[in-house]
Design goal:
two-stranded antiparallel ribbon; about 300 residues
Length: about 300
């Protein structure tokens, strides 16, 4: 007797590389991505391409853009104020990144090793909730040469008053420390999250071998934190090169005193909206984009941000 064989239908059609996704998934994904993609195209990609085009033109908003080729870039290379602004910006970045990274790393380690209080972590993050403009205004009052409470405290301790925000020597370190105060808590929480990802049994094994806290930090915490630390450094360096509002609010005049705080973003803004030289301002913006791209690539390669030592 012939036995009829039947084959159960497959629950899901399979393609050459695995199960096929329902056709509606692609449309649903496109719907979810569309708002972010629209924002990216309108507010990032198009302004970037427009700025690159304007960097080769003479444009003042009142007349059509006039193509001038590389004239804006030649002017930039021979502009001493541009190079001075770049030097001031680099000085700010070095101070800000150096102090902020060390302080944030210490705070993150202390939060990991000494406390589990969510309240304390919230307090650490509090300065980040203050806008740069508000922080600049508050510290402008605190560090005022004559009436600021900071200088009053120095006077009580027997020191002379210091023009923190009105002297060539102190203005950039002061602005850098203002931004360190505001951002160090957020940076510390990012590093703290990275420390939380390190398995606890690694520390337990080190304690059994007689390692102290300092040795565990140098031999365990810091090496295993490297990928997170690298990403944090890349983010903070990019943000530091774009400093603008704190300088604009807290320093005397645009870039004062005597261009000592004339960071690159402030000079670009002044060229565009103060002197209506949008072509030249665009050329400096493109140069800043190129500098940040090179720095980011170098940082990524040197710090091996895409690799981890965790097995």
């Amino acid at each position: 007797m012939a036995v009829a064989s039947s084959r159960a239908p497959s629950k899901q059609a399979r393609g050459p590389r695995g199960p096929r996704r329902p056709r509606g998934d692609g449309l649903l994904a496109a719907i979810f991505i569309a708002p972010a993609m629209a924002g990216f195209l309108v507010f990032l990609l198009w302004p970037t391409l427009r700025g690159i085009y304007l960097s080769f033109t003479r444009y003042n908003l009142l007349t059509p853009a006039e193509w001038v080729g590389l004239d804006n870039y030649r002017r930039m290379v021979n502009d001493p104020i541009f190079w001075g602004s770049l030097r001031v910006t680099v000085e700010y970045v070095v101070i800000n990144i150096g102090v902020q990274t060390v302080a944030a790393l210490c705070i993150a380690v202390l939060m990991q090793r000494l406390t589990t209080s969510s309240l304390l972590r919230g307090v650490v993050l509090t300065p980040y909730l203050v806008s740069n403009v508000v922080a600049g205004v508050v510290f402008l009052w605190i560090l005022d040469t004559q009436l600021g409470i900071g200088n009053e405290i120095l006077g009580v301790l027997g020191f002379d008053h210091v023009a923190f925000l009105a002297s060539n020597e102190w203005v950039i370190p002061s602005v850098a420390l203002i931004n360190v105060w505001r951002h160090v808590g957020y940076t510390a929480l990012l590093l703290f999250a990275g420390l939380q990802a390190i398995p606890g049994d690694v520390y337990e094994a080190a304690r059994v071998d007689g390692a102290g806290e300092l040795r565990m930090f140098w031999r365990i915490s810091l090496p295993l934190l490297r990928p997170v630390l690298a990403v944090v450094l890349i983010m903070t360096v990019i943000g530091s090169f774009q400093v603008f509002d704190t300088v604009a609010v807290a320093t005397p005049g645009p870039g004062g005193p005597a261009n000592a705080s004339n960071v690159l973003q402030l000079y670009i803004y002044g060229s565009a909206y103060g002197r209506f030289q949008f072509g030249y301002a665009s050329a400096m913006s493109v140069a800043l984009l190129a500098v940040l791209s090179v720095i980011t690539i170098v940082q990524y390669r040197l710090t091996r941000a895409g690799e981890t030592d965790l097995g």
